[in-house]
């Protein structure tokens, strides 16, 4: 408050020359100070709420009630257990063996997609989906359906040359890939 009094009573304190610049400096300081306060208050991040195990409501519309065939199928299906301690059912295995979606793709996503997918596709090989794997690389096809021994994809994995920037695949994972190729490398 004392500073303001000095600014307004400049003749009393002999600050004639200083006052020619002081109102401008005072106004600039005031504006910058307020701007700083507003920025500091506006950029305050909200409190982070830890995730809970509660289900998150979705905005998906409910299934239409005009499907009599679907209701008949539901009535014919055996009732599932509602016991919360029961283990979830294992993913459906395709009759005949290994499933690309359930067995092979998760291995590729964990170990291969960093270098062969997204923005980065070494050798032009995209392993994010079945079509990319079957399209092969700039060197040609990498999977020969039904022939794991002749597939470059399997050879590189078995020799430990791939994946280069991830831990070596476990023997079980390598066997899943071999079985999938030998079973025809189906998109299932």
Question: Any low-confidence stretches, pLDDT <50, length ≥5?
Answer: 44-50, 62-81, 86-94
Strand order of the largest sheet: 1-2
- Helix- and strand-based class? mainly alpha
Element order: H for helix, E for strand: HHHHHHEEHHH
First and last CA, distance? 79 Å
Strand content: under 5%
Radius of gyration: 34 Å
Q: How many beta-strand segments?
A: 2
* Number of helices, where a helix is a run of at least 4 consecutive DSSP H or I residues: 9
Mean pLDDT rating: 73
Main sheet overview: 2 strands, antiparallel
Query: How would you sum up the global shape?
Result: rod-shaped
Query: Can you give the helix content as a percent range?
Result: 40-55%
Short description:
This protein is mainly alpha-helical and 188 residues long.
List keywords for this structure.
188 residues; mainly alpha; two-stranded antiparallel sheet; 9 helices
Give the topology, please.
Layout: H1 2-8, H2 10-13, H3 16-19, H4 22-42, H5 68-76, H6 100-111, E1 116-117, E2 120-121, H7 130-135, H8 152-158, H9 171-182
Antiparallel strand pairs: 1-2
What does this structure look like?
The protein has 188 residues and is mainly α. Among the domains are: 2-42, no CATH class; 100-182, no CATH class. 44% of the residues lie in helices and 2% in strands. It is built from nine helices and two strands; from the N terminus they run H-H-H-H-H-H-E-E-H-H-H. It has helices at residues 2-8, 10-13, 16-19, 22-42, 68-76, 100-111, 130-135, 152-158, 171-182, and strands spanning 116-117, 120-121. A two-stranded antiparallel sheet has the order 1-2. Strand 1 (116-117) and strand 2 (120-121) form a beta hairpin. The radius of gyration is 34 Å and the shape is rod-shaped. It starts with a helix and ends in a 6-residue tail after the last helix.
